[in-house]
Amino acid sequence: MTAISVKGLTKSYGELVAVKDATFEVPLGTICGFVGPNGSGKTTTIRMLLSLISPTSGSGEILDEPISHPERYLSQVGAMIEGPAFYPALTGAENLRVIATLGGFPLSRIPELLETVGLAGRGDDKYKTYSLGMKQRLGIAAALLPNPKLLILDEPTNGLDPAGIQEIRDLLSKLAKEGVTVFVSSHLLSEIEMISEYLVMLRKGEVIFFGKTEELLHRSRPTIVVKATKASDLKRLKKLVDEVGHPALLEGDELRIDADEKWGAELNELAFENEIVLKQITPVRPTLEETFFTMTEEEQ
Amino acid sequence: MRIFRAEWRKLRRPTLFFGSMGAVVAVTALVVSLLFLLIDSDMGNADRGQRITRDVLALPSGISIGFSSSAGLLGIVALCVFAAQTAQEYTYGTLRSLLVREPRRIWLLIGKYLSMGLFAFFTVMFSAITSVLLAFALSGIAKVSTDAWTTSEAWTNLFETFVNVLVSTFGYGTIGMVLGLLLRSPISSISIGVGWLFIVESILSIAWSPSGNWLPGSLLSVVASGGAPIGVTDVPSYSEAFIRVSAMITAAALVTGFMFKRRDVAS
Q1: Buried b vs exposed e over B173-192: b needs ≥16 C-beta within 10 Å?
Q2: Which of A20, A195, A271, B28 could make a disulfide contact with A276, Cβ separation 3.0–4.6 Å?
Q3: Phi and psi at residue A122, in whole multiples of 5°?
Q4: CB neighbours of A285 closer than 8 A, spacing ≥ 6?
Q5: How far apart are CA A277 and CA A280, in angstroms?
Q6: Cα distance from A173 to chain B (closest Cα, Å)?
Q7: Where are the alpha helices (DSSP H) in B70-151?
Q8: What letter would DSSP give residue A77?
Q9: Would you say the C-alpha torsion B24, B30, B31, B35 has a positive or negative sign?
Q10: What is the distance in angstroms between the Cα of A202 and the nearest Cα belonging to chain B?
Q11: Do the chains contact at B92 and A86, CB–CB below 8 Å?
Q12: Are the CB atoms for A67 and B71 separated by under 8 Å?
């Protein structure tokens, strides 16, 4: 059983293809990041998964139920799409009561959820008085109302301060440990990298990667960055490492060598044999952001 | 039922509920007061400068005249509430949250409609109570005999008027909801609805009187009055008006419902 499975999902608006032939799967019980730049089709895909818009072609399943029958799975799905949306004249708690009543969820969960998202003291204040971060938290509380098996969040950390982002990150990790599958979209790749075991990567409406985050990061070539006690020795070292088949780039007072961290010991030995004293050897793994840009450049 | 109750949570908030009921009581009181206090005025004491005499008011149907005269204003309130409650789901972006919780779109519309219908029922009831109480209170000042108002015929007439005004209020409300779904903006829906039903239709009716036989606002006022309003001639019978306006509104509601079911929710 998968949480989300889509095959050839496409959405066109006339000539414009917002999502093109998207195919991916999200296993149950994981946090899956849904990443891509603004306008890459993330929200359109999420809307199709939640049956707010109908696909032009393709198919999909959520919790093993076809997306053409949303009434079969939406009671087990919590979602926040395109930011929070509530009634400004109602209080935060009353807004949640409207959603809970509509979905048939117990109202008794509301105080607990307000506590979970850090709004315990503000539930009786009108929504229109909330800050952007508080609105975002209320949106997450609403998404948690059904006690979902699958949580779909579109840019949940928008408007949150660093402490708020950390809290949401911790909350999502906690939910995943409890068995909830979290499908979270963001254009902040550094955020996603910290929490996601799985990734679906979009670019211009097309899925360019889906699978384990680790697998993606391992696809990128690692680098060793070295500094020498005498900067002038780096030129000599560059020539030496080039000769042994590791291309290197001299950048200021450091040398960036295309090599895995395991080669660090050999590099140290090579430098020592040639009377070069190294003061720093740092293995560097490319970040998700760097990997993303590398991949999209390759695609182009 | 879930949808009905969820919508009612929004409608029952004090500012909206008591504000609307207060407005209904105020306009009904105004209409009934003018009816009794201007009874001897040369300018008339009813809609379009019509004069309703003491003799007419003293009839068993006299107790209901003030109430049925308020129907147009109740229609405005219903149109505004139905249009605003529907269109604001688009402007606030809450429609997507509602559809995630209730993906059966037609059921969502029906639940919302019934809930707003209950709200409309309360407006009509408040208006009826206000008009009857005020009619008795002002009858002495206006020297109108109330002997016939306590007969069973008067109460039957009042009940029939209540049903007719309720039907017409539902009609205005349905038009408001259709406009809300089509235009997706409370301001546009209300201004176009009120502008058309209460201004454009009046102008058209004055410019070419037979047009009133086919205009929804004119037909709804015939339904609310239980036939031709007092002093108005050249209008269709109650049953003709009811059939015509019901057909128009049902067709508009079906087409809009179909569009709502199929339309992408992208905002």
Answers
A1: bbbbbbbbbbbbbbeebbeb
A2: A271
A3: -120, 5
A4: A217, A220, A222
A5: 9
A6: 24
A7: 71-91, 94-101, 105-142
A8: E
A9: positive
A10: 19
A11: yes
A12: no
The CB-side HSE value for A16 (13 A sphere, CA atoms) comes to 7
Contacts of A270 (CB under 8 A, 6+ apart): A237, A240, A241, A244
Contacts of A17 (CB under 8 A, 6+ apart): A10, A11, A205
Which of B190, B171, B166, B194 lies closest to B180 in space, CA to CA?
B190
Contact check, Cβ <8 Å, B100/A47: no
Q: pLDDT (tens digit, 9 = 90+) per residue, B64-101? A: 888 888 888 889 999 999 999 999 999 999 999 999 99
ipTM: 0.82
Contacts of A164-169 with CB under 8 Å at 24 or more apart are: A164/A118, A164/A133, A164/A136, A164/A137, A165/A191, A167/A118, A168/A140, A169/A194, A169/A195
pLDDT in tens, B166-195: 999 999 999 999 999 999 999 999 999 989
pLDDT, position A234: 85
Residue A134, helix vs strand vs coil: helix
The first and second tokens of residue A203, run together, are 């670019």
Nearest residue of A to residue B8, measured between CA atoms? A98
B216 CB-near residues (< 8 Å, 6+ apart): B171, B175, B197, B201, B245, B248, B249
B124 vs A158, more confident: B124
Show the low-confidence residues of chain A (pLDDT under 50). none
C-alpha distances out from residue B205 to A29, B81, B222, Å: 66, 26, 13
CB contact at 8 A, A42 and A188: no
Radius of gyration for the alpha carbons in chain A, expressed in angstroms and rounded: 24
pTM of the model: 0.83
